Structures are given as C-alpha cells and as structure tokens.
Amino acid sequence: MMSAKSGNSTEHVNKKPRIDRDSFDTMVVVKVGRDETVFRMHKTIICNVSPFFKAAFEGNFVEAQEQVLELLDESITMFKHFQLWVYTDSIITKGETATDVTWVSLACLYIFGEKCGIPDLQNMAIDVLIDKQQISIRMPISIIRKVYDDTPATAPLRRLLVDLMACKFPVVHGGLAEWMREQIPKDFLFDLAVVLHALRAGSKADIEDFKACRSDYHVKSPVSPPAPTSGGAASKPL
C-alpha cells in the first residue's frame, strides 16, 4: 500500500460570534427527550450559533411566542454535550478526554449539527472522534448504523468511518465475520469495498495519521437547516 500524510493539517477554529454583555439578558427553554428534560439557555447565545434556533426563537413560529422549543426525539446526553459546546467551545469538560465521550454521542452531535446548520459543531465532533480512534482498538457497529441511517451519502462523517475501518482496523483485510456483515449497513460495506480496492490498487494513499489530515473530513460549507420542529413535527407559523 502507498503511505502518505496530508499536508493541510489544521486545528479546529470555532467561528461563533463574540459574546457581549447583552448576550445574557433573556433565557429560553429547550425540552429534550421523551422525558422533556428542561435546558435553560441564553437566547442570544444559542441563536448566534445556529440558524435553526434563531428561526425558532425569533421567527414566526409558536416557539418564538412561547420561548420554548421541544426536541423530544433528541438524546439528552447529546444535548448536554451541545450545551457545553455552546458556552465553552468544547464538548469535553475539564479533566475529561475523548474516551469519556461515546462513539454514538459523537455521531449524534454531528447529526444534530447538520440538522441545525452548525458546521462548527460537526467539525468539533469529527475532531474528537479522530482523537478517540487513536486510543481505541475497535469501532462499534452502533456508530456505523447510526451514521448511515441519519446522514446523506455525501456526509464527510461517512467517509471518515470508512477510511478509519480500512486503514486503522486491519481485521477487515482478512474479511469481516459473517455476523458483522449481517449487522453493518450494506451501503457501508459497499463504500468499504471501494476504499479497500483503491488501497490495494495503489490509487488511494494509506492514511497513517488521521489527526494530521482531520480538516479533510471537516464540513466545508454551512448546512441549510430545516424549519424548527417540536417532537419531530414541523412547527406552524403563528
């Protein structure tokens, strides 16, 4: 196999607007999960990081009048990471490492960032996932299923998971076990076969250091979010 390292390594730079003294004036409520766990956040801050929340709390929707948004289909654990990121630019608290965030939570953060038009959050999830793979000996099938169920075919996260499996986990070169092939999405297996063929043919370089080329998997352009939703149903204008 060829061996190469990308020369365009960059550290993730957050681009959220600067917070000023007026950012803490008004609070809004976000109810998350089936238990409707309440998260109280500063309206200006959350609207600044996401066009989805800006449309919900400042647009012509019921949420704007009530200042309450329901995200009943979202994970509470994921939203805690999101809330931390909104205020600290990190999804990991002080004293924690990438090992303290589950693979699926990172996938959920990425998917949530796509829904809400927050590429910076998606890229942060990518960065932590790459840090996590450096100390992991396997990739759980659950993250593959989650990503392939809830992202478009062009999602950079799909490409990252395929490249990680092909380049970091050599078990695939001897063939996947039958039970793995039955549980892994067919689209992932197809993408993996394409990459493995390219590696063996020498038309794709083996990736030795994913951290050095993390920007190759970053979302390059803003994502247009859907209209605000409440428990999975589209909100109605006032």
TrEMBL record:
Domain of life: Eukaryota
Domain BTB as annotated: residue spans: 24-95
Region (Disordered): 219-238
Database matches in Gene3D superfamilies: Potassium Channel Kv1.1, Chain A
PANTHER family xref list: BTB DOMAIN-CONTAINING PROTEIN (PTHR47843:SF2), BTB DOMAIN-CONTAINING PROTEIN-RELATED (PTHR47843)
Protein name (record): BTB domain-containing protein
